Write the structure tokens for this entry.
Amino acid sequence: MIKIKDKAIFICDAHYNLHDRKLFYFLKDIKDKKIAPSQIFFMGDMFDLLVGEISYTHKVNKECIDLINEISLEIESFYIEGNHDFNLAKIFPNIKVFSIKDQPIKCAFYDHTILLSHGDWRSNRRYRFYATIIRNRYILIFLNIIDKLLNNFISKAILHSQRNKFKCEKIENFINKTKEKIKKYDVVTNEAAIVCEGHFHQGIEFMYKNIRYINFYAFVCNCTYYSISFNKKVIFQKKGQNNGQQCIESWLK
């Protein structure tokens, strides 16, 4: 079981691309020790598209890949794969990487159980079948060959569609929808637990039976990340929260 340390940070859904480089400046601040976490948990979808077998995605994300690898030599780091970034173990050799089939990850913080996942592991059978197929190494190697022959048309098309996608919308009736899905966590633990997810970009916390559920807000929306501490209870403190252009400018100063 992973032991989470005081002042560990959690960041999810940064959706880095060459047109939105907030993640790069955030990582640079960590590398320059302006931000000094005890551990880092990358909670998935850190990139608009990063796939272990698709070479073009390595090229366009190189500056952040290099920074993450440099940081991981000094700070214990964990990467919980999302639906936009997967098959990453070889890309990040010094990081403990968890695929969708490994999620949720059971962790301990003081005497509390914390379950971490990107958030899409609880989806329906059709999605789980799709997730298995799209992560198949041999299928991806074949797709990489096709992508190269087409001058990376497939990768570029996906990245273009992601660039134009609004990522900060509120999901109607999110709490009630999520309560139904939280029941699946009962399979993982019968004890009181804290469940932390990304994926949905909502920044919402609520209690359901014996589970404290936290959906982290997306870093791409306003540079929000979270730091954990303990003072009679587990505290997830929001950090780096700005709005709109201020968020971008804060990392360019």
Q: What stands out?
A: The first strand starts at residue 2 and ends at 3. The chain has a mean pLDDT of 91.
